[in-house]
Amino acid sequence: MNSAPCSQTVDALAQVQQQIIGCRQCPRLIAWREHVAQEKPRRYQDWSYWSKPVPGFGDPGARLLIVGLAPAAHGGNRTGRVFTGDRSGDWLYRALHKFGFANQPTSTHRDDGLGLTNCYITAAARCAPPDNKPSPEELKNCRPFLLRELELLSHLRVTLGLGRIAFDAALMAFQQLGWGSFPRRPKFAHGAEYKLTERPTLMASFHPSQQNTFTGRLTEPMLDAVFSRIRELLRQ
């Protein structure tokens, strides 16, 4: 079951979302996301691209936070919602639906009726980067948004980093917030799990990118196993 957030939390998260949308800190990312919106492929010629930073999305009372890398150029940068309109999102939302975190297994556009329960999704970088590679400075510029989301999502029990960059972004945010220390620095590995006393468990998964799913590095049973473990943790 999820805990109902107070109205102040809902309002504060909405404020963070608006701050993200209005951010213009990274000139390289601004230029790229706007270029992509103009030079769009034929299959998306009829789309008016979002072409702005993409905010987090989900349940303000969430006990699970998922951190992705960044919006895809023709996914979130087109649709305006994280993991929406691309193959990575197909994999993620199918798994979230299977394990009861989403009301439907697909995510195609901002007004498709998708709703999340007990889950909030965000990203290490909020703008689509060239070659899916945000720079260290760009990730640093985005970190205050993740820090604020972690502070506001007060019911969190598990934070899942999808891919090494997202995992490291979550870990750095934990450390910056002073959320305990680890005997050894947590290392990224699919299915890795690190427990902090009275703080969210930090978990890792390979990112459901085409590079991973097409090559078999990440399979559906592997992703399901991660969410099965998350469900176990949330029942404890």
CATH class: Alpha Beta
What's the end-to-end separation, in Å? 12 Å
Q: How would you spell out the order of helices and strands?
A: HHEEHHEHEHEEHH
- In the CATH classification, which architecture applies? 3-Layer(aba) Sandwich
Radius of gyration: 17 Å
- Main structural class: alpha/beta
Strand content: 5-15%
Range of helix content: 25-40%
Mean pLDDT, nearest integer? 94
Per the CATH scheme, the topology name is Uracil-DNA Glycosylase, subunit E
Task: Count up the domains.
Answer: 1
Could you characterize what this model shows?
The chain has 8 helices and 6 strands. With about 240 residues, it is of the alpha/beta class. The protein has a single domain (about 5-235), classed as Uracil-DNA glycosylase-like domain (Uracil-DNA Glycosylase, subunit E, 3-Layer(aba) Sandwich). A 6-stranded mixed sheet has the order 1-3-2-4-6-5, with helices on both faces. Helix 1 packs antiparallel against helix 5, helix 4 packs across helix 8 (about 220-235) and helix 5 crosses helix 6.
